[in-house]
Amino acid sequence: MKRQIFTEDHEAFRQTVRTFLAKEVEPYYEQWERDGVVSRDVWRAAGRQGLLGIAVPEEFGGGGEPDFRYAAVLAEEFTRAGAPGLAIGLHNDIVGPYLTGLATEEQQRRWLPGFCTGETITAIAMTEPGAGPDLQGIRTTAQDKGDHWLLNGSKTFISNGILADLVVVVARTTPEGGAHGLSLLVVERGTAGFERGRNLDKIGQKAQDTAELFFTDVRVPKENLLGELNGAFTHLMTNLAQERMAIAVAGIAGAEQLLELTTEYVKERTAFGRPLAKLQHIRFEIAELATECAVTRAFLDRCIEEHARGELDAVQASMAKWWATELQKRAADRCLQLHGGYGYMNEYRVAKAFTDGRVQTIYGGTTEIMKEIIGRSLLN
Question: Average pLDDT of the chain?
């Protein structure tokens, strides 16, 4: 079915993204995977091309376009290119709304211009070694010292952790923490006591730097409080729907790309003297996957439209995230199997898609958490 949600402007933007990927990303991506981190130059190139801060007001150097469909185009094209290492989605769709929606005008003038040019790379530090994504279990503390906050604690699995110049840190600002005692503090590169640990060795997304962060008596200026004091829980819940939608969009795009690659492979690959595509089992596998992708695409496109209008709720976003990422996981497994031994070789895109995409059902809230959100909404 022809998709109906994009205008000519969106499709023109898609061509811009594809040109950027072909010129600035694909020639260097294997080296970035070996390095475990992308070049800062590509972030600046993305800024020059207008791919950063799309929703940021023009007065701060952004695109002034809050339409989520542009973010969806970026997610789709980066997924199709097999280039998740350049975490523009995290920067634009997850951290960006905190800076545009919660920051004071003074903070926006300090941080947003560099955010849009790629000079300032961002991250959000929520997950902790002993608590995972459980906000109730956060132990990182920020003590009020009058003219500053004294920040102590550690975070792990932080995407952009090595490159980040600006880290939004979730910390306890009351002894009990929890839903009514957490705040967001912005820690800047070079602040005394802020240290980066290991660039973590993952099974996939090798070019995307994922790090441990440590805060030891870090003096955070009072003017770096983001949003309301003790209001982080509400702020985080408000922005989770967009984070999960961005992951879901990448999920269905990944499944569709796997279907396309595998369809071409089974047409060309022969076994027992004839193409794999002539075997009924293969045709059934492709038919099932194509139908699952088509049905999921219809739902995801509806969710993208709803979110672009500001009408998507947390439950719908959880449904989208759960279903699309689980489909991507199933598609990667089935398509690798259809590739046979070649599917196990890193030189084949299906192998990288298998390892790169596996985290999709984990970060942004696991599938199990998504089901709990949906179930509570229906049964409580």
Answer: 96
The DSSP secondary-structure symbol of 278 reads: G
Pairwise CA distance, residues 120 & 276, whole Å: 49
d(CA 61, CA 88): 16
Q: What per-residue confidence (pLDDT) applies to 164?
A: 98
**What ranges make up the beta strands (E) of 160-222?**
166-172, 182-188, 194-199, 210-221
Answer for the pair 128, 238: CB distance below 8 angstroms, yes or no. no
Q: Which residues contact 137 (CB under 8 A, 6 or more apart)?
A: 128, 130, 131
Q: Measured between alpha carbons, how far is 331 from 262 in angstroms, rounded to an integer?
A: 10
Q: Are residues 306 and 316 in contact, defined by beta-carbon separation less than 8 angstroms?
A: yes
CA distance 301 to 237: 23
Give the C-alpha separation, 286 to 89, whole Å: 30
Catalytic residue among 128, 243, 285, 292: 243
How many CB atoms neighbour CB 154 within 10 A? 17
Write the pLDDT tens digit of every residue in 104-139.
999 999 999 999 999 999 999 999 998 767 788 899
Alpha-carbon gap, residue 191 to 224, rounded angstroms: 12
Amino acid (one-letter) located at 171: A
In 3D space, the residue among 91, 196, 121, 211 whose CA is nearest the CA of residue 158 turns out to be 211
CA distance 262 to 19: 25
Report residue 45 as tokens.
Answer: 């190139």
| DSSP of 31-89 | HHHHHTS--HHHHHHHHHTT-S-TTS-GGGTS-----HHHHHHHHHHHHHTT-TTS-HH
Question: In DSSP terms, which residues pair with 159 in a beta bridge?
Answer: 210
Contacts (Cβ under 8 Å, ≥6 apart) of 234 = 228
The answer to whether the CB of 340 falls within 8 A of the CB of 268 is: no
- Give the integer Cα–Cα distance in Å for 158 and 154: 11
Q: Which of 341, 321, 308 is nearest to 68 (CA)?
A: 308
> Active-site residue 243, yes or no?
yes
Chain CA centroid to CA 87, Å: 7
Rounded to two decimals, the pTM is 0.95
As a whole number of angstroms, the distance between CA 67 and CA 290 comes to 29
- Give the end-to-end CA distance of the chain in Å, rounded to a whole number: 38
